[in-house]
Amino acid sequence: MFYREAGQYKTSYVADQAVFPIRQDRYGIAIILLVAFVAIPFLGSTFLLQAVMIPFLIYSLAAIGLNLLTGYTGLLSLGTGAFMGVGAYACYKLTSVFPEVNILVWIIASGFVAAAIGILFGLPSLRIKGFYLAIATLAAQFFLQWCFVRIPWLVNYNVSNAIEVPQRQLGEIILTGPNSTPLTRYMVVLVIVVVMTWLASNIVHGRIGRMWMAVRDQDIAAELMGIRLLPTKLLAFAVSSFYCGVAGAMLVFLWYGGAEADTFNINQSFFVLFMIIIGGLGSLLGAYFGAALIFGLPILLRYVPAELGLPLHSATVEHLSFLVVGVLIIFFLIVEPHGLARLWQIAKQKLRVWPFPY
Amino acid sequence: MSAKRRPPGEVLLKVENISLSFGGVRALSDISFEIRRHEVFSIIGPNGAGKSSMLNCINGFYHPQGGSITYKGRTRRQMRPHEVASQGIARTFQNIALFRGMSTLDNIMTGRSLKMRAGLLAQAIRFGPALKEELEHREFCERIIDFLEIESIRKVPVGRLPYGLQKRVELGRALAAEPELLLLDEPMAGMNLEEKRDMCRFILDVNDEFGTTICMIEHDMGVVMDISDRVVVLDYGRKIGEGQPEEVRSNQAVIDAYLGVQH
Ligand SMILES: Nc1ncnc2c1ncn2[C@@H]1O[C@H](COP(=O)(O)OP(=O)(O)OP(=O)(O)O)[C@@H](O)[C@H]1O
Ligand SMILES: [Mg+2]
Prior knowledge:
The complex is a heterodimer of chains A (358) and B (263).
Chain A: H1 13-17, H2 23-43, H3 46-72, H4 80-97, H5 103-122, H6 131-150, E1 163-164, E2 168-170, E3 173-176, H7 182-204, H8 207-217, H9 219-224, H10 229-256, E4 258-259, H11 266-279, H12 284-307, H13 314-335, H14 339-353
Antiparallel strand pairs in A: 1-4, 2-3
Helix pairs in contact in A: 3-7, 3-8, 3-10, 3-11, 3-12, 4-5, 4-6, 4-10, 5-10, 7-10, 8-10, 11-12, 12-13, 12-14
Chain B: E1 11-22, E2 25-36, E3 40-44, H1 51-58, E4 66-71, E5 74-76, H2 81-86, E6 89-91, H3 104-110, H4 120-125, H5 129-147, H6 163-176, E7 181-185, H7 193-210, E8 213-217, H8 221-227, E9 230-235, E10 238-243, H9 245-250, H10 252-262
Parallel strand pairs in B: 3-8, 3-9, 6-7, 7-8
Antiparallel strand pairs in B: 1-2, 1-4, 4-5, 9-10
Helix pairs in contact in B: 3-6
The complex binds adenosine-5'-triphosphate (ATP) and magnesium ion.
């Protein structure tokens, strides 16, 4: 009874085509944005910003990227980590060569570099799918990671063989480097992630999103309707890698402050894949749910029991999180492939008819 | 029932000497026929006769080893799916091939993909022309939804719909492309009487109102005889009869091969 569209008649297709046609959803989004843009910056501690919110947002963006490819287009990829790495290394190279150009421009530009590499490794998807495509993307993962280790030019021949994030400013405000504040970095990440989520939402609700889902659900029917499979799949690879690339650049420049090749290993790929499996394949909201759960769980396990007076050993925390995440993945793969996002929908549906069972 | 509608026009599609085999199986041998504009043309025949294979050749999914297909005056040895679709051929499938994870509305909207122009960037910011285009096409799809009387299920994921409705949505998706030639592979299979009657009405209305040429595969003889202008009969990949429904019905080879076994 609290959440329902009764009385909210759509008088035009504009209103009905809106992304959030139900009023309560719009209020919900407004409140979340208010919290994210006002409450958290004013009230949040450095710890909350640096250790929770920044990585949560960055991983949400990476999960959205992978979800566009795997959840919406049905192409399984194990190369997410490497594509994030491409973004990070591209951003580092670009800002080293052209330091006078604003770093924000380079963060976005590095997405385009990742998109180009993504298209290249997406080419096999015309001939192969499913398991075999996953193996092909795995090859991309290992090849790119090998490049990160073996090509010292990528890190400007640093002796550490690692990215060392330089200080970059926007006017007087320090955006990156050791002297930047978590608050500034949080705000930058937040703006980029919100804008890119909005763009992704528009894409998946338009012609291109429908073509992706058509290819996912019935590629033969899609092809016979005149949808060209290869360009459609390559576009999914491009847009997905763009998102992962930007996420990777932000991961290094706005969170870690430095990175080596191993930052972008296969574990990173699985990390993001687990997020979309638990959060929900084919749902943007699911990407946030998944990132919150996978990223938030270890933090909760570390701090909540400690507050309650039974601190867990850090190894125990790690094992426990692995256990819980593993169980959840099995649960969602078997019971609810649409993940937490679907459970959320069901809950809303129940609220709509509450207190009646139907 | 078949009150004369638009008179058949010039030849829209001409199939000449098509042969198709899979390894040792000859699915089609030397098949020729013509479909004229505005007519309702049916392909009938027993199971495995090669009917679906024929449709698959027409829209370029199968590549026949011999023969040629002339569509709108252009002769090709093989059709190519993208080209065929953009030239105005749409189809439905024997085993429903809907996009199961998408809603009825989205399925139908996908049918209009080729008519939409806005690029990635315009769609990403959903502004100006892209939004306008989306809404125009939405309006067109709503007309199809009204026409097929499926207003109440427009937001329902098609995977959850009963079989009869899925067939209807699939017709809607094909209609969204505004085809000149509509290929229907057993549009009424597995339906009850009432659903069949509705489907017949939709097919005839489409043919009537938009002049769409229909090429249909159907097993229900009553329906075929009622609504077709012309019929071609296949058996073991060969053409064994062709003509108006009455002629076909009285053709001895056809009775032996097909109608005979049913009665
Ligand atoms: N992709 C394929 N690979 C191998 N054999 C095929 C293929 N498609 C069709 N065939 C064979 O071609 C023959 C004709 O099949 P088709 O599906 O065209 O028959 P049909 O007339 O549509 O039958 P039904 O009424 O059962 O739908 C059958 O013997 C079938 O086994
Ligand atoms: Mg068939």
